[in-house]
Design brief:
Two copies of one chain form a homodimer.
Chain A: H1 3-41, H2 48-61, H3 68-95
Chain lengths: 96, 96
């Protein structure tokens, strides 16, 4: 296979990276909205049961090539980042 | 806002999780293909310059709410998982 074909594969990876970026940020906006709702209701932001349910759904739908353990690892980082975003929003709200 | 609306937001998050799962695994298949091409060409799997270029493109397109540092952190985990997959394929190829 020539480098032209390698470049084409890489171009496809770049496109997928941008799709992931888009969905990750849209997901983050939803998580911020959920944070605001919970804030009003006085509910805890971090809910391990909900996190477990999300991971179970993902593992149920995972057809690879990534192993469930890898999927779990990556998504836990996404969840953690979302929680940090909610905490930042909370801090900013306190400063208003 | 009622819990019905909270449930709807969560349903949307679940849908986005599944979209992310789908793209992450499709990306992983491409990365495996790239690994096979590099193997044939005798090129190194890990290329820091290529990783840097991917991150730069992502940061260029990042409109938040996640900060560039968070996007970089999440994607580095995705890259690392892809590299591990290539290494596993290599090990399996040696055993054939």
């Amino acid at each position: 296979m020539s480098n032209v074909e390698l470049d084409q594969l890489r171009k496809q990876v770049d496109e997928m990276n941008l799709q992931l970026l888009d969905i990750i940020n849209k997901r983050a906006e939803l998580v911020q909205e959920i944070g605001r709702v919970k804030e009003k209701q006085g509910v805890n932001r971090y809910e391990p049961v909900r996190e477990r349910a999300m991971l179970d759904l993902l593992k149920e739908h995972n057809n690879g090539p990534f192993l469930n353990s890898t999927i779990e690892h990556i998504f836990k980082e996404v969840f953690k980042a979302g929680l940090e975003l909610q905490k930042d929003d909370h801090r900013k709200a306190l400063l208003v």
